[in-house]
Amino acid sequence: MRTGPAARAGSRSRLSTGSELAFIGQCVVAGAAFLATSGMRDDHGLGIDSSVFAAIPLMLLVVVLAAYLHRVLFTLPVMALTRALGNPWWAPLWAAVVAAAYAGWAASAWDLPYGWTALWIAGPGVLPVVAASYARHRSPGWSAMAARVGAATGIALLLCAFGAFLQERTGFGAYEPPRLERSRYAGEWTGGGGAYRLRLDENGEAVAGNLAQVAPTGLWDTCSGSGTWTFEQRRGSGGLFDRTRDRVTLTIDGCGPMRHWQVAGTAERPELFCVLGDPQDLHPRSAVTMHRV
């Protein structure tokens, strides 16, 4: 029988068997669910940039490191407190206590809202704690836990793929841009936290103030000036989801090729956006968004 530091380290490790796998699995499934529900959100004409796929290996490495950090900082303390008390039903309570302690520290250090911070800390900890509790009572090895978590993750990914297929086929919950009269677009628009502004008058005149654009050098720039605007209905938007959108076309003296602003948001809170960047360029494009004041 082993004793000493090695035995204690092995005991601590068994307290959280498979918890890091559960953390990784839930992150992978969350990413898949985000992609599967893309059609239910507005992509603002951008879609999924190819650079996202190139960054997948790095994102997986970050998730793995986060999983082991989460095990050390969250799951191990929860399981240690549960074992010390000798009652497995207290695990949710200790998880809430640990989450509350970390949330209090984070909220005071970075001036974050306490309630949301506690939920963000406790939420990702539910499945890892459940996996650790299961491993403690059933005593499977790490490989057996990997098989179980892998199977559960695979089933969840298949459900995400099936859900994405159904959503694309049926259009259930699909985002639809608002259809508004021209008069609804006349008025003041602002974006970038108030950094740039646009005024559209009923008579077709337009005034831009520090409007974001891409300079010939490829860097972001701003422009100001006056000109005109026109309203067009039901034009193709491009992007991953080629939605039919209404469009505001600007002609502003002193501003570069940033003519078309497309409609987004909702009927209650309409938005205008413009995609900056060349669709043929390998560099990521960005969408500038403005809303009614």
Would you spell out the secondary-structure blueprint of this structure?
Layout: H1 5-15, H2 19-36, H3 50-54, H4 56-85, H5 91-110, H6 114-122, H7 126-138, H8 142-170, E1 187-191, E2 196-200, E3 205-214, E4 220-236, E5 244-252, E6 260-265, E7 270-276, E8 286-292
Antiparallel strand pairs: 1-2, 1-8, 2-3, 3-4, 4-5, 5-6, 6-7, 7-8
Helix pairs in contact: 2-4, 2-7, 2-8, 4-5, 4-7, 5-6
Which features does this protein show?
293 residues; disordered N terminus; alpha+beta; eight-stranded antiparallel β-barrel; 23% strand; 8 helices
Could you describe the 3D structure shown?
The chain contains eight helices and eight strands. The chain is α+β, with helices and mostly antiparallel strands and 293 residues long. The protein has an eight-stranded antiparallel β-barrel with strand order 1-2-3-4-5-6-7-8. Helix 2 packs across helix 4, helix 2 (19-36) runs parallel beside helix 8 and helix 5 (91-110) packs across helix 6. It starts with a helix and ends with a strand.
